[in-house]
Design goal:
Distance between the termini: 20 Å
Shape: globular
Structural class: alpha+beta
Mean pLDDT: 95
Helix content: 10-25%
Strand content: 25-35%
Number of strands: 34
Number of helices: 16
Largest sheet: 11 strands, mixed
């Protein structure tokens, strides 16, 4: 086991919240008054339907200024080039009431003399992803000081790029919920090659039109269109990556060096070939295809997480024999020119990529095909190491899962939805805090859900999203997210601004509570877990018995769970009356559940008072809320984990099972509970799936929970006071003899290195800054001070 001590000292002074490059300060005037720049649009085209457009502005500089700061945004999306070099992409996904702009200093890309700013702007129209909200097609650039010469409004030219058309997915073949938008079909013969480069002849372009209304920041004026706000997160990471192998080729011989970019592939005239390529693991990337020659050749890219057999079974993800690829597609139609570069407007998620080439009267040469990886720029600061090599794979696959489910928002899954759901996001955010220390995406998520509030007082379940959906249980977990943030960060002003939203959510639930203390009938989709056989009982996936007619112990206990967290928050804010009322209500609910749903014959907690159905979920929440007496909890937890007759928690809700293990002092049960994750790895998955086989998504955020648990359960690190001002370390090594790791903390890195031998626990702990706390193991405790200390229990 390598020591974590040198690693920790190497991290001293490291800023856990750094972005790829320091961004200039935003001009305060942009947040308090109308902008000088105007939103512009292409003339003479519908502005709410599909279209890809280019804008250009040429200006001259006698000398390079000290700074050339611009503020940029677009709808749906934009990509900004300076003198031919891609510089910015955005805006970060949100809604028109909170439309983000990007601020950047373009000085490094400028030259004396003529300079060109060029922007690609597109509106995906009816085929846009559900995660993409929109007002209408538009682009804006506001310059500061010397950069005001670049302001949109006048002097910009525009072109409607007729080369693009949407390529909708073949839903009859895919046969599942897929809402990530259409693919792209691009005709090279109609593409304005070099449009972003200096020297390009744009004399035939039309003048861009300016919208009649002024551009305004959020909270200024009466207009509800594009309420501009500063981007709260950094630009996404982008880096080139290579495919790993040619797995199958039909109709052509392909050199293994093709995937390395060292062996171009020529497909003869009047041919049709298919090449199956393997990245080796799932990725999110912009595919980059470089083609020469081949007039009218059609090159189609198909992307998939895994291949399927004739029965639509994935099986081992490494195996391809007898399997086919079905999925999202892009298409490029060559024009015979050299070095034609195709990149879709949005990134794709894939492990397997099939290139199908159909040539006409000329051969075509595929010079290269690679990817540009993209994700939120989380940096893996934490580590976990031990003497069980299988856990290294769990960490690696789990962290990859978490990374691929985080971009401009957290995402449930990158292939099928790319939607930020509260249930997934709570788990993802904890992983982010522990592994990277970067809290910006968590803050954005909390605010996104606050922006989604409906008049009834609930958040939407997923947001930003153009298709509204409400899951009341997720509104409760939004409150839990705020409690998590409060425990891990010293950010009182941010937390306090959400107290009215918390009140509204709890009031919604309280209004639906029955006289007997249990929850009554609850509207909307009260999803709990993808657990069979609930759907056979309720006819709605993921919803347990008792929700529609009332009396659900699960829904009642989750409400009580959240009431206790809300009480902590309101007591901290000094509202003792609210805190006391929330605690009293939680106690009433817990007592009602135990009195009405406890089955003395089976010694189990039923899902409803009729004692007809039983699940792990009710017991997990009964433990987390203390509805079940504390003295009975350890034995009950072991019993429900062994009783397969109960409705089982799947990967999502097992996060709460793991939390119940810690609460009952039985964290040593965690490592044996990882067998389903080991099985996924054994099946060739390179990310963790949405649910047990058969599964739709091979990469689902909530299933990355073991990464957090390795640090918070096995290593045992958790905040012992709000703001992580104190730490509690309660390790549960199980059968491990050695373990070590680091956890990101606002003051630096917490480092723990422990050895378990002959009933003794030895090692050392380093706490950053002035952090203090306690280490507890098997009923024994030692006080921890700032800096390094030896452990001997």
């Amino acid at each position: 086991m390598r020591s974590v001590i040198p690693y920790l000292f190497a991290c001293v002074g490291l800023n856990l919240w750094l972005s790829a490059a320091a961004q200039p300060t935003i001009n305060p005037a942009l947040l308090t008054m109308g902008w000088e720049a105007r939103w512009i649009h292409p003339p003479g085209v519908p502005l709410t339907t599909y279209g890809v457009f280019h804008f250009r502005k040429t200006f001259s500089l006698e000398a390079i200024p000290a700074a050339f700061v611009v503020n940029v945004s677009g709808d749906n999306r934009y990509r900004l080039f300076v003198n031919g070099q891609a510089v910015l992409e955005g805006p970060a996904r949100s809604d028109p009431g909170h439309w983000y702009f990007d601020t950047h200093d373009l000085k490094p890309y400028l030259r004396t003399g003529a300079n060109v700013l060029a922007a690609q702007v597109w509106n995906a129209g009816e085929g846009k992803p559900y995660a993409q909200m929109s007002y209408q097609t538009g682009f804006i650039l506001q310059g500061e000081g010397a950069a005001a010469v670049a302001n949109t409004g006048t002097g910009w030219k525009s072109l409607h790029n007729q080369a693009y058309k949407p390529l909708p997915p073949n839903r009859e073949r895919i046969q599942t919920y897929l809402v990530t938008g259409d693919g792209d079909e691009v005709s090279a013969a109609r593409y304005p090659w070099g449009w972003e480069q200096p020297g390009y002849d744009d004399s035939g372009w039309a003048a861009a039109s300016a919208y009649w209304f002024a551009a305004k920041p959020r909270g200024v004026g009466t207009d509800g269109n594009w309420c501009l706000a500063p981007r709260p997160i950094p630009q996404m990471e982008q880096r080139p990556e290579r495919l790993q192998a040619v797995r199958r080729a039909e109709g052509v011989s392909v050199s293994p060096d093709f995937v390395l970019g060292k062996a171009p592939l020529t497909v003869p005239a009047r041919s049709r070939v298919k090449i199956l390529l393997d990245r080796g693991h799932l990725t999110n990337a912009y595919p980059e295809l470089v083609v020469s020659g081949g007039l009218d050749a059609r090159l189609t890219l198909t992307y998939a997480e895994a291949l399927i057999d004739e029965n639509r079974i994935k099986g081992n993800r490494n195996e391809i024999e007898g399997k086919q690829i079905i999925g999202v597609q892009d298409r490029f139609i060559a024009d015979g020119g050299n070095d034609r570069h195709f990149r879709p407007l949005w990134w794709r998620s894939y492990r397997y990529l099939e290139l199908e080439v159909e040539t006409a009267g000329e051969p075509v040469t595929v010079q290269d095909l690679y990817g540009t990886f993209t994700a939120y720029p989380f940096v893996e600061q934490a580590l976990f190491d031990c003497d069980d090599p299988r856990l290294k794979a769990v960490w690696e696959v789990g962290w990859r899962t978490a990374r691929l489910c985080a971009a401009e928002n957290y995402m449930d899954c990158p292939y099928y939805e790319q939607l930020q759901y509260v249930g997934d996001t709570r788990i993802q955010a904890l992983i982010s805090l522990y592994v990277s220390g970067d809290d910006r995406l968590m803050r954005k998520a909390i605010e996104d859900f606050a922006h989604s509030m409906i008049p009834e007082g609930l958040t939407q379940s997923r947001y930003p999203c153009a298709d509204p959906q409400v899951i009341p249980t997720y509104s409760l977990f939004w409150v839990s997210m705020i409690h998590d943030y409060w425990m891990h960060r010293r950010d009182d002003a941010f937390i306090r601004q959400h107290q009215e939203g918390i009140r509204d959510i709890l009031a919604w639930f309280e209004a639906r509570r029955r006289a007997d203390g249990l929850m009554g009938k609850a509207e909307w989709w009260n999803f709990v877990d993808w657990s069979w056989p609930w759907e056979e009982v309720t006819r709605v996936g993921g919803v347990p018995p008792g929700v529609f007619e009332g009396g659900s112990s699960i829904l009642s206990l989750q409400y009580a769970y959240t009431l206790r967290q809300a009480a902590d928050l309101f007591a901290y804010w000094g509202d003792q009356a609210a805190a006391q009322q929330y605690r009293k209500t939680a106690e009433t609910i817990c007592a009602a559940v135990y009195n009405r749903c406890w089955d003395p014959a089976r010694q189990l907690l039923a899902d409803t008072p009729d004692l007809q159905s039983y699940s792990q979920h009710a017991h997990i929440l009964g433990i987390l809320t203390d509805a079940v007496p504390a003295k009975d909890q350890p034995a009950l937890l072991r019993r429900i984990m062994a009783d397969t007759s109960l409705t089982q928690a799947t990967f999502y809700f097992q996060f709460y099972l793991f939390e119940a293990m810690k609460k009952t002092g039985q964290g040593d049960l965690f490592l044996p509970a990882l067998e389903p994750w080991h099985e996924m790895i054994g099946m060739g998955l390179t990310t963790f799936a949405e649910k047990p086989e058969p599964t739709r998504s091979d990469c689902h955020a909530w299933s990355a929970a073991p990464v957090y648990e390795l640090l918070s359960t096995v290593l045992g690190v958790s905040p012992a006071a709000p703001g992580f001002t104190k730490v509690q370390i309660t390790p549960y090594p199980g059968t491990l003899s050695r373990m070590a790791g680091t956890v990101a903390h606002p003051d630096g890195m917490i480092a723990v290195q422990l050895r378990q031998t002959d009933g003794r626990l030895t090692g050392n702990v380093i706490l950053p800054g002035t952090l203090t706390g306690k280490l507890t193991w098997k009923g024994k405790s030692v006080t921890l001070v700032a800096g390094q200390q030896e452990i001997n229990l």
